[in-house]
Structures are given as C-alpha cells and as structure tokens.
Amino acid sequence: MKAETYISVDVEADGPIPGPYSMVSFGMTVAGRMTGRRFERTDPESLTFYAELRPISDDYVPEALAVSGLDRATLLREGRDPAEAMTAAAAWVREVCGDDLPVLAAFPLSYDWMWMYWYFLRFTGQSPFGHSRCIDIKTLYAAKAVVPVAWATKRQMPREVRSRRPHTHNALDDAVEQAELLQNLMLWPGATRERDASDVSGAASPD
C-alpha cells in the first residue's frame, strides 16, 4: 500500500458556491506523511503554494470578499488566470507527493474541498486528489474526542491540540495553522479523560 502525503488547504472566496462566485485565493502546505499506521510531521512552512486568482464572474458577495482582505479591482487586474494557477497547483501537489497518494485536509473539509475540486475539474479536467482522497479535521477531532460534531470547534479543543498560530484569513497562513492542528490531532491519543471530566463538570457544551 502506498504512503499518503497530507496537504492542508485553505480557500478564500467571494461567495458561497463556485461557478456563480469565485475563489479569490488558496493556500496549500504539506502537513505530514502517513505510512501504514505511522504519521510523520512536516514543517508546515517548508513546502507551500499560494495563489490569488482572477474572478470568473461578475457576481460577488461584498461581505464574503471582505473576509480575505483582498481587493476585487486588483484581482481583476493582477490575479492569476485560474487555468494557469490550477495547473501549477496540480503540478506542485504531484511534485511534493512524489510516489505518495495526495490527501487534501481542511477544517471544515466541505467548504474547501468543494471549491478546490470544482476549480480543478473546471480548469484542468482532473483533481490530483481524485474524487475522494480527503480528510475532515473537524470530524477527526469529533471522533477522537468522542463528542458531537457541533462540539468540534477550535475553542472547545484541549490546548495541547490547538495550533499556536493565529487564524488571519490569509489562505496560506490558515493552511499552515490548520496543518499544525492536523499534526497535533494525528498524534493525539484521544480524549477519554478529558471527555469524562467534561461530562462531570459540564464544561463541554454545544455552540
């Protein structure tokens, strides 16, 4: 069985769904490598990819665009062509993974996977992650902590699991941040003691 390389991905967009709206930037970093049952960390700042993209439609949600801090006029003028950027991104994934299987990791996966998969298929015809090689960091925590998904928020995670890096809404910064979170969770034995203590004290509660 082939080893897997985990690629942490974060997306910023100017609306809720791809097609009618645009992905304005994305960041990727190598988070680690899984060989059988053994996970190895990688410095999340050592192998990275970042792109700011030219919008593909005239529609956008100002509030969504504002989250990224990017300027639409600048993106229209200077943003990378989506086909060129996605082709380069796919080549980068193949290069850093080598013979390993690439696995996309995100928090939450549903949003970032949706954008990346759509853009890869629309502009390159295929995804380097196939149609399902992905891991949801949110679900990973819920399973290891034995808590409902609604409780799988960063602020409710134990301190030793959370990343020490800030969440800035720059796509590369956030990809690096969640790479550290993934690494911590992959090496975390689980939360039986923490869960039992929470059940007694009532410290863990849904948002």
From TrEMBL:
Domain of life, per lineage: Bacteria
Q: Which Gene3D superfamilies match?
A: Ribonuclease H-like superfamily/Ribonuclease H
Q: Which InterPro entries match?
A: RNaseH-like_sf (IPR012337), RNaseH_sf (IPR036397)
Cross-referenced SUPFAM superfamilies, in alphabetical order? Answer: Ribonuclease H-like
Q: What is this protein called?
A: Exonuclease
